Amino acid sequence: MANLKEIRGRIKTVQNTQQVTKAMKMVAAAKLRKATDRMIQLRPYAAKMKEIIGNVVSALNVEDIPSKLVVERPVKNVLLVIVTSNRGLCGPFNANLFRFVNQYIQANFASYKESGNLHALCVGKKGYDFFSKRDVKIVDGKSYDVLSKLSFEVVNTVTERIFNGFLSGEWDKVVIMYNEFKNVMSQNRIAEPFLPLVLEKGETVSQNNTNADYIFEPGREKILADLIPNSLRIRLYRSVLESNASEQGSRMVAMDQATENGNALLKELKLKYNKARQAAITKEILEIAGGADALANA
Protein backbone atom coordinates (compact mmCIF):
# COMPACT_ATOMS: atom_id res chain seq x y z
CA MET A 1 0.00 0.00 0.00
CA ALA A 2 1.27 3.49 -0.87
CA ASN A 3 2.32 5.67 2.03
CA LEU A 4 0.43 8.78 3.11
CA LYS A 5 2.79 11.21 1.37
CA GLU A 6 2.37 9.50 -2.01
CA ILE A 7 -1.41 9.45 -1.70
CA ARG A 8 -1.52 13.13 -0.70
CA GLY A 9 0.60 13.92 -3.75
CA ARG A 10 -1.77 12.05 -6.05
CA ILE A 11 -4.78 13.80 -4.52
CA LYS A 12 -3.14 17.19 -5.09
CA THR A 13 -2.33 16.25 -8.70
CA VAL A 14 -5.93 15.23 -9.41
CA GLN A 15 -7.25 18.46 -7.85
CA ASN A 16 -4.88 20.55 -9.98
CA THR A 17 -5.94 18.64 -13.09
CA GLN A 18 -9.58 19.28 -12.24
CA GLN A 19 -8.91 23.00 -12.10
CA VAL A 20 -7.47 22.81 -15.62
CA THR A 21 -10.37 20.75 -16.99
CA LYS A 22 -12.94 23.07 -15.43
CA ALA A 23 -11.22 26.09 -16.98
CA MET A 24 -11.03 24.38 -20.38
CA LYS A 25 -14.73 23.51 -20.17
CA MET A 26 -15.61 27.15 -19.51
CA VAL A 27 -13.43 28.32 -22.41
CA ALA A 28 -14.95 25.71 -24.72
CA ALA A 29 -18.47 26.74 -23.68
CA ALA A 30 -17.73 30.38 -24.52
CA LYS A 31 -16.23 29.42 -27.89
CA LEU A 32 -19.16 27.10 -28.59
CA ARG A 33 -21.63 29.91 -28.02
CA LYS A 34 -19.76 32.12 -30.47
CA ALA A 35 -19.35 29.33 -33.03
CA THR A 36 -23.01 28.33 -32.97
CA ASP A 37 -24.09 31.96 -33.37
CA ARG A 38 -21.96 32.31 -36.52
CA MET A 39 -23.14 28.94 -37.83
CA ILE A 40 -26.84 29.65 -37.26
CA GLN A 41 -26.54 33.05 -38.92
CA LEU A 42 -24.97 31.50 -42.03
CA ARG A 43 -27.40 28.59 -42.47
CA PRO A 44 -30.35 30.64 -43.88
CA TYR A 45 -28.00 32.53 -46.20
CA ALA A 46 -26.53 29.29 -47.58
CA ALA A 47 -30.00 27.79 -48.03
CA LYS A 48 -31.27 30.88 -49.84
CA MET A 49 -28.19 30.91 -52.06
CA LYS A 50 -28.93 27.34 -53.10
CA GLU A 51 -32.55 28.24 -53.81
CA ILE A 52 -31.61 31.22 -55.97
CA ILE A 53 -29.14 29.20 -58.02
CA GLY A 54 -31.79 26.55 -58.60
CA ASN A 55 -34.22 29.17 -59.88
CA VAL A 56 -31.59 30.78 -62.09
CA VAL A 57 -30.62 27.51 -63.78
CA SER A 58 -34.20 26.30 -64.10
CA ALA A 59 -34.41 27.54 -67.70
CA LEU A 60 -30.85 26.62 -68.70
CA ASN A 61 -29.12 23.47 -69.80
CA VAL A 62 -25.87 22.47 -68.10
CA GLU A 63 -23.87 23.17 -71.26
CA ASP A 64 -25.22 26.75 -71.27
CA ILE A 65 -23.94 27.51 -67.76
CA PRO A 66 -20.82 29.72 -68.05
CA SER A 67 -18.74 27.98 -65.38
CA LYS A 68 -16.24 25.15 -65.65
CA LEU A 69 -16.98 24.27 -62.02
CA VAL A 70 -20.11 22.37 -63.12
CA VAL A 71 -18.47 20.40 -65.92
CA GLU A 72 -18.29 16.67 -65.26
CA ARG A 73 -15.41 14.71 -66.74
CA PRO A 74 -13.92 11.22 -66.35
CA VAL A 75 -12.62 10.87 -62.79
CA LYS A 76 -8.91 10.10 -62.72
CA ASN A 77 -7.95 11.85 -59.48
CA VAL A 78 -10.02 12.46 -56.36
CA LEU A 79 -9.57 15.09 -53.65
CA LEU A 80 -10.95 14.72 -50.13
CA VAL A 81 -11.17 17.97 -48.16
CA ILE A 82 -11.00 16.75 -44.55
CA VAL A 83 -11.92 19.30 -41.87
CA THR A 84 -10.53 18.44 -38.43
CA SER A 85 -9.18 20.35 -35.42
CA ASN A 86 -5.78 21.82 -34.64
CA ARG A 87 -5.79 20.60 -31.05
CA GLY A 88 -6.72 17.49 -29.14
CA LEU A 89 -8.58 17.04 -25.84
CA CYS A 90 -11.91 17.05 -27.68
CA GLY A 91 -13.04 13.49 -27.05
CA PRO A 92 -13.77 11.27 -30.07
CA PHE A 93 -14.28 14.28 -32.39
CA ASN A 94 -11.33 13.52 -34.66
CA ALA A 95 -11.22 9.74 -34.17
CA ASN A 96 -14.84 9.30 -35.28
CA LEU A 97 -14.22 11.38 -38.40
CA PHE A 98 -11.06 9.43 -39.27
CA ARG A 99 -12.97 6.17 -38.94
CA PHE A 100 -15.74 7.55 -41.16
CA VAL A 101 -13.25 8.76 -43.77
CA ASN A 102 -11.50 5.39 -43.90
CA GLN A 103 -14.81 3.59 -44.34
CA TYR A 104 -15.86 6.04 -47.06
CA ILE A 105 -12.57 5.55 -48.91
CA GLN A 106 -12.90 1.76 -48.76
CA ALA A 107 -16.46 1.94 -50.04
CA ASN A 108 -15.96 4.50 -52.82
CA PHE A 109 -12.33 5.24 -53.62
CA ALA A 110 -10.32 2.12 -52.75
CA SER A 111 -9.01 1.77 -56.32
CA TYR A 112 -7.90 5.41 -56.41
CA LYS A 113 -6.02 4.95 -53.14
CA GLU A 114 -4.25 1.85 -54.44
CA SER A 115 -3.24 3.62 -57.67
CA GLY A 116 -2.01 6.73 -55.83
CA ASN A 117 -4.70 8.98 -57.30
CA LEU A 118 -6.36 9.86 -53.99
CA HIS A 119 -5.43 13.25 -52.51
CA ALA A 120 -6.28 14.81 -49.16
CA LEU A 121 -6.44 18.51 -48.37
CA CYS A 122 -6.27 18.74 -44.59
CA VAL A 123 -7.98 21.66 -42.89
CA GLY A 124 -6.60 21.26 -39.37
CA LYS A 125 -3.35 19.81 -38.02
CA LYS A 126 -4.90 16.62 -36.63
CA GLY A 127 -6.00 15.54 -40.07
CA TYR A 128 -2.51 16.09 -41.45
CA ASP A 129 -0.92 14.17 -38.57
CA PHE A 130 -3.21 11.21 -39.23
CA PHE A 131 -3.29 11.00 -43.03
CA SER A 132 0.37 11.86 -43.61
CA LYS A 133 1.13 8.40 -42.18
CA ARG A 134 -1.32 6.68 -44.57
CA ASP A 135 -1.19 5.99 -48.29
CA VAL A 136 -2.84 9.30 -49.16
CA LYS A 137 -1.18 12.19 -50.98
CA ILE A 138 -1.32 15.36 -48.88
CA VAL A 139 -1.96 18.47 -50.97
CA ASP A 140 1.03 20.84 -50.78
CA GLY A 141 2.51 18.62 -48.06
CA LYS A 142 0.98 20.64 -45.24
CA SER A 143 -2.19 21.34 -43.28
CA TYR A 144 -4.22 24.49 -43.87
CA ASP A 145 -4.69 26.32 -40.59
CA VAL A 146 -7.90 28.33 -40.92
CA LEU A 147 -9.07 27.83 -37.34
CA SER A 148 -6.58 30.13 -35.61
CA LYS A 149 -8.14 33.16 -37.32
CA LEU A 150 -11.40 31.76 -38.61
CA SER A 151 -13.01 34.06 -41.16
CA PHE A 152 -14.53 33.87 -44.61
CA GLU A 153 -11.41 35.44 -46.15
CA VAL A 154 -9.08 32.88 -44.57
CA VAL A 155 -11.26 29.92 -45.60
CA ASN A 156 -11.49 31.39 -49.10
CA THR A 157 -7.74 30.80 -49.59
CA VAL A 158 -8.47 27.07 -49.28
CA THR A 159 -11.43 27.37 -51.66
CA GLU A 160 -9.27 29.08 -54.29
CA ARG A 161 -6.68 26.30 -54.00
CA ILE A 162 -9.43 23.75 -54.62
CA PHE A 163 -10.76 25.73 -57.60
CA ASN A 164 -7.30 26.04 -59.15
CA GLY A 165 -6.61 22.33 -58.77
CA PHE A 166 -9.95 21.37 -60.30
CA LEU A 167 -9.69 23.76 -63.23
CA SER A 168 -6.11 22.69 -63.97
CA GLY A 169 -7.06 19.01 -63.94
CA GLU A 170 -5.10 18.20 -60.77
CA TRP A 171 -8.23 16.42 -59.54
CA ASP A 172 -11.56 15.68 -61.20
CA LYS A 173 -13.81 15.15 -58.19
CA VAL A 174 -13.82 16.88 -54.81
CA VAL A 175 -15.63 15.74 -51.65
CA ILE A 176 -15.79 17.63 -48.34
CA MET A 177 -15.77 15.53 -45.17
CA TYR A 178 -16.50 17.09 -41.79
CA ASN A 179 -18.46 16.86 -38.54
CA GLU A 180 -21.82 18.59 -38.78
CA PHE A 181 -23.05 20.09 -35.53
CA LYS A 182 -26.18 18.35 -34.22
CA ASN A 183 -26.04 19.17 -30.52
CA VAL A 184 -23.45 19.37 -27.78
CA MET A 185 -23.47 15.62 -27.23
CA SER A 186 -23.30 14.37 -30.82
CA GLN A 187 -22.30 15.26 -34.38
CA ASN A 188 -23.12 13.92 -37.82
CA ARG A 189 -20.28 12.80 -40.06
CA ILE A 190 -20.86 14.29 -43.52
CA ALA A 191 -19.38 13.44 -46.94
CA GLU A 192 -20.60 16.22 -49.23
CA PRO A 193 -19.81 16.34 -52.98
CA PHE A 194 -18.22 19.69 -53.75
CA LEU A 195 -16.90 19.66 -57.33
CA PRO A 196 -18.16 19.44 -59.96
CA LEU A 197 -21.16 21.33 -58.62
CA VAL A 198 -24.39 19.43 -59.17
CA LEU A 199 -27.23 21.87 -59.90
CA GLU A 200 -30.56 20.51 -58.72
CA LYS A 201 -33.51 22.26 -60.29
CA GLY A 202 -36.35 20.30 -58.76
CA GLU A 203 -35.63 21.16 -55.10
CA THR A 204 -35.54 24.93 -55.41
CA VAL A 205 -38.95 26.05 -54.20
CA SER A 206 -39.80 28.71 -51.71
CA GLN A 207 -41.74 28.16 -48.49
CA ASN A 208 -45.12 28.56 -50.15
CA ASN A 209 -44.12 25.89 -52.72
CA THR A 210 -44.01 28.32 -55.63
CA ASN A 211 -40.89 29.23 -57.58
CA ALA A 212 -39.72 32.77 -57.04
CA ASP A 213 -40.07 35.10 -60.00
CA TYR A 214 -36.73 36.88 -60.55
CA ILE A 215 -35.81 39.66 -62.93
CA PHE A 216 -32.29 38.93 -64.18
CA GLU A 217 -30.04 41.89 -64.90
CA PRO A 218 -27.75 41.79 -66.87
CA GLY A 219 -28.69 38.13 -67.55
CA ARG A 220 -28.76 34.56 -66.23
CA GLU A 221 -25.35 33.64 -67.65
CA LYS A 222 -23.58 36.66 -66.18
CA ILE A 223 -25.20 36.17 -62.79
CA LEU A 224 -24.27 32.48 -62.70
CA ALA A 225 -20.65 33.25 -63.57
CA ASP A 226 -20.39 35.04 -60.20
CA LEU A 227 -23.04 33.18 -58.23
CA ILE A 228 -21.70 29.63 -58.64
CA PRO A 229 -18.17 30.19 -57.22
CA ASN A 230 -19.60 32.35 -54.44
CA SER A 231 -22.04 29.57 -53.54
CA LEU A 232 -19.17 27.08 -53.32
CA ARG A 233 -17.18 29.46 -51.13
CA ILE A 234 -20.14 29.74 -48.77
CA ARG A 235 -20.53 25.96 -48.74
CA LEU A 236 -16.93 25.34 -47.65
CA TYR A 237 -17.08 28.16 -45.10
CA ARG A 238 -20.26 26.66 -43.64
CA SER A 239 -18.64 23.21 -43.34
CA VAL A 240 -15.72 24.74 -41.42
CA LEU A 241 -18.11 26.58 -39.10
CA GLU A 242 -20.08 23.38 -38.51
CA SER A 243 -16.86 21.51 -37.71
CA ASN A 244 -15.66 24.27 -35.39
CA ALA A 245 -18.90 24.25 -33.42
CA SER A 246 -18.78 20.44 -33.22
CA GLU A 247 -15.19 20.59 -31.96
CA GLN A 248 -16.00 23.03 -29.17
CA GLY A 249 -19.07 21.05 -28.14
CA SER A 250 -17.08 17.81 -28.06
CA ARG A 251 -14.29 19.46 -26.06
CA MET A 252 -16.74 20.88 -23.54
CA VAL A 253 -18.30 17.45 -22.99
CA ALA A 254 -14.88 15.78 -22.78
CA MET A 255 -13.64 18.25 -20.16
CA ASP A 256 -16.85 17.87 -18.15
CA GLN A 257 -16.43 14.08 -18.19
CA ALA A 258 -12.78 14.44 -17.20
CA THR A 259 -13.81 16.55 -14.21
CA GLU A 260 -16.41 13.97 -13.18
CA ASN A 261 -13.84 11.19 -13.55
CA GLY A 262 -11.54 13.25 -11.34
CA ASN A 263 -14.23 13.32 -8.64
CA ALA A 264 -14.52 9.54 -8.77
CA LEU A 265 -10.75 9.19 -8.57
CA LEU A 266 -10.57 11.62 -5.65
CA LYS A 267 -13.18 9.60 -3.78
CA GLU A 268 -11.14 6.44 -4.30
CA LEU A 269 -7.87 8.13 -3.29
CA LYS A 270 -9.39 9.64 -0.13
CA LEU A 271 -10.66 6.20 0.84
CA LYS A 272 -7.15 4.78 0.37
CA TYR A 273 -5.72 7.71 2.33
CA ASN A 274 -8.07 7.11 5.26
CA LYS A 275 -7.27 3.38 5.24
CA ALA A 276 -3.53 4.08 5.14
CA ARG A 277 -3.87 6.68 7.89
CA GLN A 278 -5.86 4.28 10.06
CA ALA A 279 -3.28 1.56 9.46
CA ALA A 280 -0.48 3.95 10.44
CA ILE A 281 -2.32 4.95 13.63
CA THR A 282 -2.99 1.31 14.50
CA LYS A 283 0.67 0.49 13.94
CA GLU A 284 1.79 3.31 16.22
CA ILE A 285 -0.63 2.22 18.95
CA LEU A 286 0.65 -1.33 18.73
CA GLU A 287 4.25 -0.10 18.91
CA ILE A 288 3.43 2.02 21.99
CA ALA A 289 1.60 -0.87 23.63
CA GLY A 290 4.47 -3.21 22.85
CA GLY A 291 6.97 -0.76 24.31
CA ALA A 292 4.87 -0.34 27.46
CA ASP A 293 4.69 -4.12 27.90
CA ALA A 294 8.45 -4.39 27.47
CA LEU A 295 9.07 -1.75 30.13
CA ALA A 296 6.60 -3.42 32.50
CA ASN A 297 8.33 -6.78 32.14
CA ALA A 298 11.84 -5.29 32.45
Instruction: Let me know the average pLDDT.
Output: 85
Q: How many strand units? A: 5
Q: Count the DSSP helices.
A: 6
List segments where confidence is low: pLDDT < 50 over at least 5 consecutive residues: 202-210
- Kindly report the CATH topology: Pyruvate Kinase, Chain: A, domain 1
> What is the alpha-carbon Rg in Å?
29 Å
* Main sheet: strand order: 3-2-1-4-5
Per CATH, which architecture? 3-Layer(aba) Sandwich
The best one-word shape is elongated
Number of domains: 1
Helix content: 55-70%
Biggest β-sheet strands, sense, barrel = 5 strands, mixed
**First-last Cα distance:** 35 Å
CATH class: Alpha Beta
SSE order:
HEHHEHEHEEH
Beta-strand content estimate: 5-15%
Structural features, described:
This protein is of the alpha/beta class and 298 residues long. The protein has a single domain (22-200, 210-255), classed as ATP synthase, F1 complex, gamma subunit (Pyruvate Kinase, Chain: A, domain 1), CATH 3.40.1380. The protein is 59% helix and 13% strand. The chain contains 6 helices and 5 strands, in the order αβααβαβαββα. A 5-stranded mixed beta sheet has the order 3-2-1-4-5, sandwiched between helices. β2 (118-123), α4 (125-131) and β3 (137-144) form a beta-alpha-beta unit. α1 runs antiparallel to α6 (220-297) and α5 (152-167) crosses α6. The longest helix has 78 residues, at 220-297. The relative contact order is 0.19. Mean pLDDT is 85; it is low at 202-210.
